[in-house]
From TrEMBL:
Gene name per UniProt: dapB
This protein's UniProt keywords: Amino-acid biosynthesis, Cytoplasm, Diaminopimelate biosynthesis, Lysine biosynthesis, NAD, NADP, Oxidoreductase
Enzyme class at the top of the EC tree: oxidoreductase
Protein name: 4-hydroxy-tetrahydrodipicolinate reductase
Lineage: Bacteria, Bacillati, Actinomycetota, Actinomycetes, Propionibacteriales
Role played: Catalyzes the conversion of 4-hydroxy-tetrahydrodipicolinate (HTPA) to tetrahydrodipicolinate.
Length: 245
């Protein structure tokens, strides 16, 4: 039986993860910790799942790795520099592993894969993410990951930057730019988590869209990561391999 603790247990994702662990016959729920609570008991767990906020996740990770607890992380905000820092902590604690994924839903993973595949065939590509207005970060972690994958695919294929004649603009009108890809963030009550990748050529467009309707969509991926993390040395970025995507 694998004992799984949860950081951010009272949050929107944390509550869903707690329920998923309780329902899994091969997993046992360990310590559940939220803002201001003692994380000491997490050291007894085999794995800790973190769905907190970008400002605190690094501190939680450093602590958990130092205590030999494998980490599964869905919290967003992981820059290449942050990932390097985590790699350093893991190297200093061989035998302790981490899986970090900006999205655990099958649909989002497929959408990112299809977007990266399509990106080299089009002159123009932009990402639009749409989320509930209680989300604290923009752009979403998924949109940033998508943009990076698209940019890498286009660079590998030698595709020129998307054409854009904009000469004057209000600040932010063209969105954020991630590795050269424009990313737009919509926040709207009634939405949960959605993303479109817009691709265009002379005379044709392709729109890839993924919709998560509820947080249940992430649980298959989260549980797969929890079950796999002990056997994947060091840092694993994304869960595509685990799900065969
Ligand atoms: N990878 C994926 O597939 C997904 C990732 N996410 C990401 O997960 C993160 C959480 O999202 P969501 O659940 O909606 O956010 P919430 O704000 O609902 O939950 C975060 C929780 O973490 C708590 N918290 C804050 N600081 C600490 C701390 N030091 N230790 C333990 N708990 C703490 C918060 O408490 P308080 O509010 O009192 O500060 C809150 O209860 C976000 O980064 C989001 O983007 C979300 C969905 C899917
Ligand atoms: O905050 C959310 O809700 C979500 N966060 C993740 C992100 O930033 O990509 C995953 C999903 O989009 C939901």
């Amino acid at each position: 039986m694998t004992t799984v603790a949860v950081f951010g247990a009272k949050g929107r994702m944390g509550r869903e993860v707690v329920a998923a662990i309780e329902a899994a016959p091969d997993l046992e729920l360990g310590a559940t910790v939220d803002h201001g609570e003692d994380r000491g008991p997490v050291a007894e767990a085999d794995v800790v799942v973190d769905f907190t906020v970008p400002d605190v996740v690094m501190d939680n990770l450093e602590w958990a790795i130092a205590h030999g607890v494998h980490c599964v992380v869905g919290t967003t905000g992981f820059t290449p520099e942050r990932l390097d820092t985590v790699r350093g902590w893991l190297e200093a604690h061989p035998g302790t592993n981490a899986i970090i994924a900006s999205n655990f839903s099958v649909g989002a993973l497929l959408m990112m894969k299809f977007a990266a595949e399509a990106a080299r065939f089009y002159e123009s590509v932009e990402v639009v993410e749409l989320h509930h207005p209680d989300k604290v970060d923009a752009p979403s972690g998924t949109a940033v990951t998508t943009a990076r994958k698209i940019a890498a695919a286009r660079a590998a294929a030698g595709v020129a930057p998307s054409p854009d004649a904009t000469a004057t603009q209000l600040d932010g009108a063209r969105g954020a730019v991630v590795d050269g890809i424009h990313v737009h963030s919509v926040r709207q009550r009634g939405l949960f988590a959605h993303q479109e990748v817009l691709l265009g050529n002379p005379g044709e467009t392709l729109t890839l869209r993924e919709d998560s309707m509820s947080r249940t969509s992430y649980m298959t991926g989260v549980l797969a990561a929890v079950r796999a993390v002990a056997s994947r040395p060091g840092l694993t970025e994304g869960i595509e391999d685990l799900l065969g995507i």
